[in-house]
Amino acid sequence: MFFFLPxxxxxxxxxxNYLLMPILGALAFSSCVQDGYSxxxxxxxxxxxxxxxxxLPVGSTAPITIGELLGIDEFGIIDTDDEGNYxxxxxxxxxxxxxxxxxxxxxxxxxxxxxxVYECSGLPVVPGSDLTIEEEVPEFHVPISFEHDGIPSEITxxxxxxxxxxxxxxxxxxxxxxxxxxxxxxxxxxxxxxxVITKIDNGDFSLESGSNSIIANKDIRIASGKPVTIKAxxxxxxxxxLPEGQGLVAPGKFMYxxxxxxxxxxxxxxxxxxxxxxxxxxxxLAAQLSEIKVRSVxxxxxxxIEMESLIHEVEEVPEILQSATLDVHGAGIxxxxxxxxxxxxxxxxxxxxxxxxxDRAEVQIDNLLIESGDTTEIYISENGxxxxxxxxMINVPGFDKLFYSVPSKIMIADLTATPVTxxxxxxxxxxNHRVGLDYGVIVMPLLFGKDMQLDYEHDLTIDxxxxxxxxxxxxxxxxxxxxxxxxxSFSAKALDVQGNAVSTISSEVVxxxxxxxxxxxxxxxxxxxxxxxxxxxxxxxxxRIHLHAEMSNGIELATLNDRQYIKFDKITxxxxxxxxxxxxx
Length: 585
Known about the structure:
Blueprint: H1 5-32, E1 47-50, E2 54-59, E3 64-65, H2 66-70, E4 78-80, E5 86-90, E6 94-99, E7 104-106, E8 112-118, E9 132-148, E10 155-174, E11 180-183, E12 188-190, E13 195-200, E14 205-207, E15 213-216, E16 220-223, E17 228-238, E18 247-250, E19 253-269, E20 281-289, E21 292-301, E22 305-307, E23 310-313, H3 319-322, E24 332-339, E25 344-354, E26 360-370, E27 378-381, E28 392-395, E29 409-420, E30 425-428, E31 433-445, E32 447-448, E33 453-461, E34 473-482, E35 486-495, E36 506-510, E37 522-531, E38 542-551, E39 558-559, E40 565-576, E41 579-582
């Protein structure tokens, strides 16, 4: 702080010597004119005593910035923003977890059969005739269903499955003495609309556009014992408004049933009938689902995703700030969310800090909504004074108390994320979805409140070898300009070459340094009075200055800025209460 002293003491000594020359000359003259010359060998008293005071102007210092004064420019975790305000940037780890729903594979259900008997009422058949009989078969239904009791327990509602499965259809007839019959063009098999059919493998049939009707696109002759088969590929099973007793009937258990509709016209030729009368004809349809491999489920879930707790050790905190009461305001944690789930999640966690004295503080953060795929940074703060551009602000009352002092540890615990599925969403099965919070930076501006108290010591190395012995009081005085936001009282003591206090030299400080503003510094006169009481000033190798800073009156919040400074102006080195000069030295 007072680095000007070593440079100006030679000047001081030259002036002192200049002032002393007339005195020494007078002494010499007086010795030469003594009468009698009787005792020329008697010792001469060459010690000169000067009374009064001597004040010598020394000059001024260059501005000493707050960073230089507190030594905070040397630490990597302390940075400045675009306006020069000091902030802590504390890198933090990530907290995350993975959520997945177990795959579902539903075994092939049993074969479903249905039939309709067409009663011919014994119509006569004339052998050798060329008679064609055509009849309309009323629509009839074949049940089809499946169930599974291995649904993941987290699933609370299901509206549909994305699947890889197939419905195998077999169309045949049973009639004694009839070797073949023909199903006329337009014959249809209607599959329930819940099954999304993507293709069929029989070229004699077509899938009607916009429906699940499989239509015969020509007359199809069916020989006895040779059924017509159709394989329909199913990509999705949609389930809406199921009747009571179907759907998710219990946790983990699903049931679904419906039916296929079949009907159309058929014809028979007398040439294919080997009896004298037309027999009853039973039209049969068999259906079977192959194994249902479920790729995804559209529904709702109820689960809690837990994440690992984190403890982050804060390193490289300047010693001056480790034990100080800083009363920091405007601190914030910058979080980058990660949510790979197809739905939003609500996150909750506790955020705590501990300082080097073991003092703890904690806040609870609940209902932090993170949308699916959202990577917008979230800034959690009490007042949001320093919200980064583009970040979403979350206000948390009491957040500032976490940073009343600079923390030595930052702790995130009890992290949970709950999926928000008020409406059904699609969950892909067997896939890991990452849910997490990456906090890259904790921004802690050095924005001090009224309770701030800061103590700082600095050793000033000085050279007083040119100061004569016998000085009673050495006074260093100055006008101090300060744009620092806090007032500073201080004390000082002289140190010897080993860094120990010189017990024979006491000190007294007069005045305090009054804080100002960045563009409006205030001036304070101060003095450091060293009471030497004739001790050898050469023992003084340094002066240890202890500063105690508190917020200036009327300033509620103040930010430290790299342009804030103190400057010592009109510096004077003064000798008070006289001194003794031994010419023999």
